[in-house]
């Protein structure tokens, strides 16, 4: 029988009533003839409670024990969901990570999935099980210890199962009803997309649209797993939500698919850096080692052997970045006059695979912002994305103006 | 290094502070040179919450899923305890049932332990681990599913580990500070026993002294595991609590060691049963099949081919017993005039291994009750126990009078 993967996040299984509602959705798919693999998160709030306990006991906790504790929430939901399905006469069985087994490496708290053997589940499907309810977010290391995949790891679990079992689709049930052209809280004209390409979703996810974990989209793209994002709080038709899929499945699309933003970017400038070959490595090496996620980088033209170097990073990593750079200066690895951090900026990005074949997107973006009197502080581009840093006070204005300029309220 | 098993019940690990207190006790034993196996229950209330959810979803739940859900509480405590010990610089590691593995049969929700291979834990002890924190109450079936041992199963887990690892002792930390000659709430003269024989503890446990699960005492007796019951809420010396051990370790003891009682007994009488060979089997067979735990049985002298048959069973099984007997009557398997249930009785028992060698205990018991005007309704005896059923209103009086008569407030 064809296999379908369905994933329910924390808010979708927060109470027994919601678990029942989710189970009904599963029942609908079983009735259509699918063997279903359901991936569940912990009931919302549970994981935070467990994490809180661990932190209270041991701020510098052993990640192996952290994983053993925080993975419990998903186990509970998996058992409760299996019971709920059985009560609806759907043959179901719960599976903890080690029972599948979902094999990972030993990087506790942020483990990578290495393999999902299909034998155990397929044997049970062969015996009449119609639904395997799998605890998300967790696996087992080569040492036989429980691992977790990092926060939001249940999305990744779902995609990995879809890939391993050649599922027809991977439906991600969540508390929003799809992927929008921009945040509806910022622009009332935001429109739900029927389809979006993996690459676009990746850019949007990494830019702060928190619908899907970035890793899960990467994995879906690599294995060409069709992902559907939809709401668990509404009655759903077969074409509800947003399908995240390969470009080839998308016949027509706007040049720009969405406008994303991130409030948590900071702009840092090293003033008057002694310019020499290898200076970029000398700056960004220490930042990388300190765990600073540098996003955009620009370097001014050098004058008299000195240059300014500007980069952006998440606001909460500014302190760490400053420390790393000051140490590098003390060690004599780099030389600069001053280090200036501007935490009052926001990043706005236009994303769309259409940019590959159509020029003029950047020009239109810059002109739109200029017309609104929004000053651009940093620009970065990729094949399907243009990002700018602007003063944070212009963020909403910039998003709305760009959404209008690229006519995202209208379907392609 | 010698091995010690320490078990902490739900109230002893109910909060992070209590877990810390328990961990300190473990640290004391590690400092003495023991390798310690700690068995933990779920934080008190947790298991009931999980059981409640399962019952709400599915009153006739699948026991496999019940086990998967309710075993989660112990996993959380095990991880938290391991983290707490690590924070105290004690090398500790948590172990879930399947990791040990604690191998059971497939009788979900009331599984029997079949084997505890010592290789995994011993390998880790060899690498420097000083404490293995094991989630109590759970194991793994031959099919690779999680099993649980039934309520209170963590005591049994602890004794089984002590047997498998040849532990010097198995310390059961609980919310009482030992085993008493009777319930201190009923007699202010109740005295804590320093030692008690397995057989006595078994009788007391099955008679309602809820300090230890009966099964754990049976197991301790079979493998001669020295069990110590003590409080996790007091500073403890080396000879604190009560040691449950083989008779041979007890030099001197009173003839009677304790007076137990049970409020939840009912007396049922089948009036005018047609007496014939096999009639007892015809009555008690159906009761057994219906899951009724018959305790005491007496049969009056038959007159004109008819007799009265009286037995006792737990009060909450009366309805089930009535149904089973009425069905047997309808089927023609037995024949009686009337069935009378008296739920207003209590069982009082005097227990002591000294009874084996000393006569007159029963006579003294009957005279004491008679002197107090307490009428005895049913009598049953075993080698080390005499039990009587009396009207419930006399229960406290009977316990106090017997405690005085056998001078249990004085040590042997």
TrEMBL record, chains A, B:
Q: Which GO terms describe its biological process?
A: homoserine biosynthetic process; lysine biosynthetic process via diaminopimelate; threonine biosynthetic process
Q: What is the lineage of its organism?
A: Bacteria, Pseudomonadati, Pseudomonadota, Alphaproteobacteria, Rhodobacterales
Q: In which pathway does it act?
A: Amino-acid biosynthesis; L-lysine biosynthesis via DAP pathway; (S)-tetrahydrodipicolinate from L-aspartate: step 1/4; Amino-acid biosynthesis; L-threonine biosynthesis; L-threonine from L-aspartate: step 1/5; Amino-acid biosynthesis; L-methionine biosynthesis via de novo pathway; L-homoserine from L-aspartate: step 1/3
**What keyword terms does UniProt attach to this protein?**
Amino-acid biosynthesis, ATP-binding, Kinase, Lysine biosynthesis, Nucleotide-binding, Transferase
Please write the reaction equations for the catalytic activity of this protein: L-aspartate + ATP = 4-phospho-L-aspartate + ADP
Q: Which residues does the record give as substrate binding sites? A: 47, 74
Q: Which family does it belong to?
A: Belongs to the aspartokinase family.
A molecular function (GO) held by this record is: ATP binding
List each copy of the ACT domain by range.
268-348, 350-412
Highest taxon above the source species: Bacteria
| Positions of ATP binding | 7-10, 174-175, 180, 185, 210-211
The gene designation is: ask
Provide the protein name.
Aspartokinase
Look up the EC number in the record and give it. Answer: 2.7.2.4
Q: Which Pfam families match?
A: AA_kinase, ACT, ACT_9
A single Gene Ontology CC term = cytosol
Task: Extract the InterPro entries matched here.
Answer: AceGlu_kinase-like_sf, ACT-like_dom_sf, ACT_Aspartokinase, ACT_dom, AKii-LysC-BS, Asp/Glu/Uridylate_kinase, Asp_kin_monofn, Asp_kinase
Coiled-coil positions are none
């Amino acid at each position: 029988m064809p296999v379908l993967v369905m994933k329910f996040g924390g808010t979708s299984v927060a109470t027994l009533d919601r678990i029942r509602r989710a189970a009904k959705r599963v029942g609908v798919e079983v009735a259509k003839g699918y063997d279903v693999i359901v991936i569940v998160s912990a009931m919302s709030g549970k994981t935070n409670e467990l994490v809180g306990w661990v932190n209270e006991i041991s701020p510098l906790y052993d990640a192996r024990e952290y994983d053993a504790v925080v993975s419990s929430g998903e186990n509970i939901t998996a058992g409760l969901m299996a019971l709920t399905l059985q009560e609806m006469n759907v043959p179901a069985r719960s599976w903890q990570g080690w029972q599948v087994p979902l094999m990972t490496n030993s990087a506790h708290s942020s483990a990578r999935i290495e393999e999902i053997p299909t034998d155990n589940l397929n044997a049970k499907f062969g015996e009449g099980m119609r639904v395997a309810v799998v605890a998300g977010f967790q696996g087992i290391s080569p040492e036989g210890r429980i691992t977790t995949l990092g926060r939001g790891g249940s999305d990744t679990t779902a995609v990995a199962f879809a890939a391993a079992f050649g599922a027809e689709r991977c439906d991600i049930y969540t508390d929003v009803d799809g992927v929008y052209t921009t945040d509806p809280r910022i622009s009332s004209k935001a429109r739900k997309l029927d389809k979006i390409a993996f690459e676009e979703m990746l850019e949007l996810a990494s830019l702060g649209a928190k619908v899907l974990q970035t890793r899960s989209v990467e994995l879906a793209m690599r294995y060409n797993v069709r992902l559907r994002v939809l709401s668990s709080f509404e009655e759903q038709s077969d074409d509800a939500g947003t399908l995240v899929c390969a470009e080839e499945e998308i016949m027509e699309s706007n040049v720009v698919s969405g406008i994303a933003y991130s409030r948590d970017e900071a702009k840092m400038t090293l003033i008057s850096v002694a310019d020499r070959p290898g200076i970029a490595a000398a700056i960004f090496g220490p930042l990388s080692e300190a765990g600073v996620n540098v996003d955009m980088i620009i370097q001014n033209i050098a004058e008299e052997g000195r240059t300014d170097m500007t980069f952006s990073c998440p606001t909460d990593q500014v302190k760490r970045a400053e420390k790393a750079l000051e140490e590098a200066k003390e060690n004599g690895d780099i030389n600069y006059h001053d280090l200036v951090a501007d935490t009052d900026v926001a990043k706005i990005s236009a994303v769309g695979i259409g940019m590959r074949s159509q020029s003029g997107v950047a020009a239109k973006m810059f002109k739109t912002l200029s017309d609104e009197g929004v000053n651009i502080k940093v620009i970065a581009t990729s094949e399907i994305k243009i990002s700018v840093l602007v003063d944070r006070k212009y963020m909403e204005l910039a998003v709305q103006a760009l959404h209008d300029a690229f006519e995202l309220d209208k379907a392609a």
